[in-house]
Amino acid sequence: MQKSTYKNIVIAPALALFAGIAVAAPVKIGVLESLSGPQASTGLLYRTATKYGVDKINAAGGWNGEPVQFVEYDNQGGPAGASDKLKAAIADGVQIIVQGASSAVAGQITEDIRKHNLRNPGKEIIFINVGAEAMELIGEKCNFHHFRFGSNAQVRTKALVNAMKQANAIGSKVYSINQNYSWGQDMEQAISDNASSGGYKVVVKTLHDVNKIQDFAPYVTKINAANADTVLTGNWSNDLLLMMKATKAAGLKVRFGTTYLDQPGNLGNAGDVAVGHYVVQTFNPEAAGADGERFIADYKARTGHEPVFIEPQTAFGMAMVADALRRTKPEAGALNVNAFAKALESAKVKTPMGEITVRASDHQALQPMAVSVVTKDAKYKVDNTDMGFKPVKRFTAEEAATPVQSSCNMKRPA
Amino acid sequence: MDQIIVSLLNGIIYGLLLFMVSAGLTLIFGMMGVLNFAHASFYMLGAYFAYTLQGTIGFWAAIVLAPVLVGGIGVVVERFFLRKVHHHGHAHELLLTFGLSFIIAESIKLFFGNYPVDYRVPNALDFSAFTIGGMQYPMYRLLMGGVAIAMFIVIYLLLTRTRVGIVVRSAIYKPHMAEALGHNVPMVFMGVFGVGAALAGLAGAVAGAFYTTNPNMALELGVMVFVVVVVGGLGSLGGAMLSSIIIGIITSLAVGVDASVADLFAYFGAGEWARSIGGLMTLKLSSMSATIPFALMLLILLVRPSGLMGEKA
C-alpha cells in the first residue's frame, strides 16, 4: 500500500510533466555535420549558416509562439557516425535534420529517415539537405522527406559550360578530371552530356582517388599530352589546389572550369595561379547587388564573418524552411512533419540572387546560379588576397534548372 | 617519348619526397624499435613552422630553423612521454604516438585555422629549370629531389663512417655494454628521436611550399609513409630509398595508362565479353594509381615479409 502510494506520488507528476512537454513541444532543428576531424572545416560552415537561419526564425517569433531550438550532432565525418547520431537526434525529439557536407553521409541519412518514417507513421522526420549534390539523392534515392537546397552536377555544369562558352573561354578540347566517387562520376557524366551544347570535345576523362594524391605532376603531363584548352573538374579542397599548382608549375596555358574554387583558403594558397579560372556558384556577392550587401552585412553581424562557399545556399535553404514553418499550423501543439513537407513544396523565397522554389516532383530546389572568374578587379576580395570572384553571367532559377531524372519515383504520404 | 621521360622524372622526385618523410621514421624504428605514428605530424609541423617563420626571417632561414624546432619537439616527446611508457612495450608507445598525432592536428587547427595557409614557393625559386615536350619542369621540384639525396648521403655517412654512428649503433645492439663504456644511452635515444623528427620537419618545410600546407597534410601522407617503410624493410635506410623511388615511379607511370583488364582480354578476342562483366574488368589503371602502392605492400608482405632490404626477422 505504502509502496503504491509512493509510486503514485512520483509517477503522477512525472506523467503530468511529460504530457506538458508533449503539448508544448518546441520544434527542434538538428544539424548533423562533421564538426571534428579532417572535414570539419566544411561542417562548421554548415553549422554556422544553419544557426544563422534558426536565429532568423526566432527573431521573427519562432514557431507556435515558442523559439525553435537549435541542436548539433557531430557525425565524425562518416555515414556510420551519422547513422548513430541520427538515432540520438530522433530520441531527443528532433524533427528537422540539416546536413550538407558529404553525399555519402547524406545518402545514409536519407535512407535511415525513409526507413524510420515507414516504421513510425505520425512521428516522421524531415531531412533538409543543404549541400550534398550527388544525383542519386534526387534520382534512385529520391524521397518525400528529403529536400535539397544545394545544386547538383548537371545544374552546375550546364551553367558553367554555357557561361564559359559565351565568354569564349572553353575552347574545343576539354579535359575532364574528377574524383572517383558518386560526385566526381556525376560530374564526369555532366561534362560529357554538355559537350554538344558547349561545342567542345572531351579529349580525355580521368577519375582519380579522393584526397590521396600528393603529386599531381603525372596528371599534368597527361593534360599536356592531350593538348587540352580547358580542364573541367568537380574537384574540391586539396585535390583542386594541388592540380592547379602543378599545372602552373609546368607552365601549361590551360584554363580551369571548377565547381568549388570558392572554398575558403583556395585562392590564398594558390596565389596568382588561380587568376583566369572559372567557378560556378550559388551566390556571388558582386552579382547579388544591394540586396546582397544587406545580406552580407546581416550575416556578418550575426556570425562574425562574411558568408562564403556553401554558407549562402544554406542560409537560403533555412529561409525556405522558415517560410514553410510560417505556413504550417500546429496540430495538437506539435509540428506535423508531413504537413510541413507539403508546405515546403510550395515555399517561395526571394533571395539576393533571385527567387528560389522547390520542384515537387523530386524536391530539388530551383535556384539562380552565377558563373564567375578569378580576377584582381573583383569587388569583393577573398582570403586576404588581392583577388576575388568577378561575375561573368547570372542564371535565373528557370535557366539553371535541368530536367527531373526518370529514376525518381517518389512515394507520397496519403 | 618526352612524356615517358617527364613521367619518370616526376616519379623519381615524388619518390625522393616520400623518402625524405620516411627516412626519419625508418631511422627511429631501426634504432629504437619505436613505431612512431605521429611521424607525419612532425612533417606537418615542419611545414607550418616554416610558413610562420618565413615572414620574418626569410625562406632559407625558415627552412633551416623549422626542422630544428621540430627536432626540439621530438626531443621533448621522447624525454617526457615515450621514455615513461617505454618499459610497457610497443603497444603503449604506439597508442601514445597515435594520440599525439590527433593532438598535433587539432592544435594546428586551433592556431592556424581549418583551411590551407598561403605557404608558397618564393618568387625567386619559382621558375622552370628546362622545357621538355612543351612542358616546363619546375626548378623547385629538382631542389626537393636534391635535398632528399643530400639527406640520404649525410645520414648514411654519419651512421657508417663517424664516431657518432658507432656510438649510436652500439647503443642499440649492446646498450648495457655501451653504458658500461661510459656512453649515455638514454641521451643517444633522445638524440636519435630528435633527429628523426627533424628530418620529417625538413621534408615538411621544403615540400609544404610546393604542395599545400593544411591541417590534413599529415593524414594524407601518413599512411603512405608506412607503406614505404614496410616495402623497403623496417629500419633499412637503403630500403626506404629504394621503395620510395619504386612507389613514386609506379604511381607516376600508372596515371598515364588508361587501360583496363578488359583491354588485356581484348588481345585474346574476349574484349566484348570482359566489358560486359564491367566492375573490376573495366576499371582503368589510371583511376587507381594511388591504390597501387597498397597492393604492392600486400604483395611484399606475402612474398618477402621483411621488406626489400630488411633484415630477416
Automatic annotation (TrEMBL), chain A:
<dbReference type="InterPro" id="IPR051010">
    <property type="entry name" value="BCAA_transport"/>
</dbReference>
<feature type="signal peptide">
    <location>
        <begin position="1"/>
        <end position="24"/>
    </location>
</feature>
<protein>
    <submittedName>
        <fullName>Branched-chain amino acid ABC transporter substrate-binding protein</fullName>
    </submittedName>
</protein>
<comment type="similarity">
    <text>Belongs to the leucine-binding protein family.</text>
</comment>
<keyword id="KW-0813">Transport</keyword>
<dbReference type="InterPro" id="IPR000709">
    <property type="entry name" value="Leu_Ile_Val-bd"/>
</dbReference>
<dbReference type="Pfam" id="PF13458">
    <property type="entry name" value="Peripla_BP_6"/>
</dbReference>
<dbReference type="GO" id="GO:0006865">
    <property type="term" value="P:amino acid transport"/>
</dbReference>
<keyword id="KW-0029">Amino-acid transport</keyword>
<feature type="domain" description="Leucine-binding protein">
    <location>
        <begin position="26"/>
        <end position="377"/>
    </location>
</feature>
<dbReference type="InterPro" id="IPR028081">
    <property type="entry name" value="Leu-bd"/>
</dbReference>
<keyword id="KW-0732">Signal</keyword>
<dbReference type="InterPro" id="IPR028082">
    <property type="entry name" value="Peripla_BP_I"/>
</dbReference>
UniProtKB/TrEMBL annotation, chain B:
<feature type="transmembrane region" description="Helical">
    <location>
        <begin position="187"/>
        <end position="211"/>
    </location>
</feature>
<keyword id="KW-0813">Transport</keyword>
<keyword id="KW-0472">Membrane</keyword>
<protein>
    <submittedName>
        <fullName>Branched-chain amino acid ABC transporter permease</fullName>
    </submittedName>
</protein>
<feature type="transmembrane region" description="Helical">
    <location>
        <begin position="139"/>
        <end position="159"/>
    </location>
</feature>
<feature type="transmembrane region" description="Helical">
    <location>
        <begin position="94"/>
        <end position="112"/>
    </location>
</feature>
<comment type="similarity">
    <text>Belongs to the binding-protein-dependent transport system permease family. LivHM subfamily.</text>
</comment>
<dbReference type="GO" id="GO:0005886">
    <property type="term" value="C:plasma membrane"/>
</dbReference>
<feature type="transmembrane region" description="Helical">
    <location>
        <begin position="245"/>
        <end position="268"/>
    </location>
</feature>
<dbReference type="GO" id="GO:0006865">
    <property type="term" value="P:amino acid transport"/>
</dbReference>
<feature type="transmembrane region" description="Helical">
    <location>
        <begin position="57"/>
        <end position="82"/>
    </location>
</feature>
<keyword id="KW-1003">Cell membrane</keyword>
<dbReference type="Pfam" id="PF02653">
    <property type="entry name" value="BPD_transp_2"/>
</dbReference>
<keyword id="KW-0029">Amino-acid transport</keyword>
<feature type="transmembrane region" description="Helical">
    <location>
        <begin position="12"/>
        <end position="37"/>
    </location>
</feature>
<dbReference type="InterPro" id="IPR052157">
    <property type="entry name" value="BCAA_transport_permease"/>
</dbReference>
<keyword id="KW-1133">Transmembrane helix</keyword>
<keyword id="KW-0812">Transmembrane</keyword>
<dbReference type="InterPro" id="IPR001851">
    <property type="entry name" value="ABC_transp_permease"/>
</dbReference>
<feature type="transmembrane region" description="Helical">
    <location>
        <begin position="280"/>
        <end position="303"/>
    </location>
</feature>
<dbReference type="GO" id="GO:0022857">
    <property type="term" value="F:transmembrane transporter activity"/>
</dbReference>
<feature type="transmembrane region" description="Helical">
    <location>
        <begin position="217"/>
        <end position="238"/>
    </location>
</feature>
